[in-house]
Amino acid sequence: MYEYVSRHLLKGVLADMVSGNGISQRQCGAALRHGRAALFAAAAALVVAPVLWVAPAMAAPSQDNDDPPVAGAGVVSFPIVNGRGWLLNVGINSRYDTNLSRFDGADGFRITPQVQGGVGIPLGRQELFVGGLVGRDFILGNDRIPNRNRFAGGGGLNWRLGQRCDGQIAGEYRESLALFSEQANFADNVQSVRTIGGSASCRVGGAFGVTGSVRFTDLQNSAPQQSLFGNRGMNYSAGLTYGRPALGQFSLTGSLDQRVFPRRTVIDPTGAVVSDGVDIYSARLGYQRGIGSRLTLGAGISYLSVKPQPSEQVVLVGPDFGFVVERPGFSGMGFDGSLVLRVGSGLTVSVAGNRRAQSSVNLGALYTLTTAVSADVNYRLGRAITVAAGGSIVRNDYRGGFASDVDVVARVSDKFDRIYGQIGYQAGRLIDVTFEVAHQRRDSNPAIFNFSSTSALLSLRASFGRTQ
């Protein structure tokens, strides 16, 4: 029976990939009625079949679904190839989750085949790069979430000017199902993000430097009930650095993040209807140093100031009457830090944490104060096997909260905990296979947004490429 269901669903998934049509809920329901073990065999067949002729992979950093790492992410999501060369990753992830949608407690599978690649092209002393990703999320066993494509594409230039200045210009467009842990639940919502940015740094003398960056981001949601969360805006930063090999590098940086929510309006004190928005200011003092080849650390302390725009609004209590209320901002301290320790030839310990302010893009709130900490331990057994374990704690305090079609009442705060264990095997230079078991839980205020789930992930990746 298991062999029949596996073969049946595998044919359906492959046909879906070719035609672009979703697997019917009738097929999924029939498979589920034949037993959860049969469905797991069907999903795992996509990954296990190639493993018959390769070994399994190296353990990799772990996050829940599409959450970004605690340490943060860059402008582009695809791998950047420096110099002349190319890189191609072909992979498939099969994930079973006991609470797939974070809503109804029903289990299911998310199967994601994808191809990711990049090309680097030298242009004199400059380096051009392009890259992208094409894939599809197949959801089995849950009617709330449909099958949807994943796409990313972009490029940029690593530039140099003389012997003292360099930087990067990059841009990307990407879209996929919105599957982030802070969402009330997962549903049919494709989130698209356009990003373009540039950065520069110049050395002044032997030890001093100046830095600067600017970035534009436009984020939109396809679901009408989540369109209120879409926003766009600019981020500006500038800083000074001082570094010596024996001391490490000190930095002083200031930044401004301006966000506007075009589909959300408020009435300002003059009676004009304007778009909702928020300005987030930050002043940071940082330090970074590598001690030998075994220890790398970085730390920073910052002052945060958040100012809603407009700072006051009119609240209507009748068709012709209202009163002006102040919109509360925030002023306080933030921090960030990271540590990577290598012990012997096989053990690596990584710790990261931060407290920051950011605009809220996945739920009914103007901005979020986030405190996050993560720790990971990675140990290499011989030349091919790697085992890893770790966890993270993320606390979100939501400000300027409001009820919406997604959040039936305004959310006050969340605490999201996650632990995982992972084993990987690397076959030669090309094939990685990873198996992971994780448990995640969200404790919310109000409690109607609580959830917990246990997941199992089986991942196969083949990497090809050549660089200078």
Give a short summary of the structure:
With 468 residues, the protein is mainly beta.
Explain the layout of strands and helices.
Blueprint: H1 2-19, H2 25-33, H3 36-51, E1 85-97, E2 108-123, E3 126-140, E4 148-161, E5 165-177, E6 190-204, E7 208-221, E8 231-244, E9 248-267, E10 273-291, E11 295-309, E12 312-318, E13 321-326, E14 330-343, E15 347-359, E16 367-381, E17 385-399, E18 413-427, E19 431-445, E20 451-467
Antiparallel strand pairs: 1-2, 1-20, 2-3, 3-4, 4-5, 5-6, 6-7, 7-8, 8-9, 9-10, 10-11, 11-14, 12-13, 14-15, 15-16, 16-17, 17-18, 18-19, 19-20
Helix pairs in contact: 1-3
Could you describe the 3D structure shown?
The chain has 468 residues and is mainly beta. It has a single domain, classed as Porin, CATH 2.40.160. Helix content is 9%, strand content 61%. The protein is built from three helices and 20 strands. It has helices spanning 2-19, 25-33, 36-51, and strands spanning 85-97, 108-123, 126-140, 148-161, 165-177, 190-204, 208-221, 231-244, 248-267, 273-291, 295-309, 312-318, 321-326, 330-343, 347-359, 367-381, 385-399, 413-427, 431-445, 451-467. The chain has an 18-stranded antiparallel barrel. Helix 1 (2-19) crosses helix 3 (36-51). It starts with a helix and ends with a strand. The model is unreliable at 1-60 (pLDDT under 50).
Strand content: over 45%
Report, as a whole number of angstroms, the end-to-end distance: 51 Å
Kindly identify the CATH topology.
Porin
Could you tell me the number of beta strands?
20
CATH architecture: Beta Barrel
Number of helices: 3
Topology as a string of helices (H) and strands (E): HHHEEEEEEEEEEEEEEEEEEEE
Structural class: mainly beta
Main β sheet profile: 18 strands, antiparallel, barrel
Oligomeric description of these chains: single chain
CATH class: Mainly Beta
Low-confidence stretches: 1-60
Q: How many domains is the backbone divided into? A: 1
Q: Estimate the global geometry from the Cα principal axes.
A: globular
Q: What is the residue-mean pLDDT, rounded to a whole number?
A: 85
Helix content: under 10%
Backbone CA Rg: 24 Å
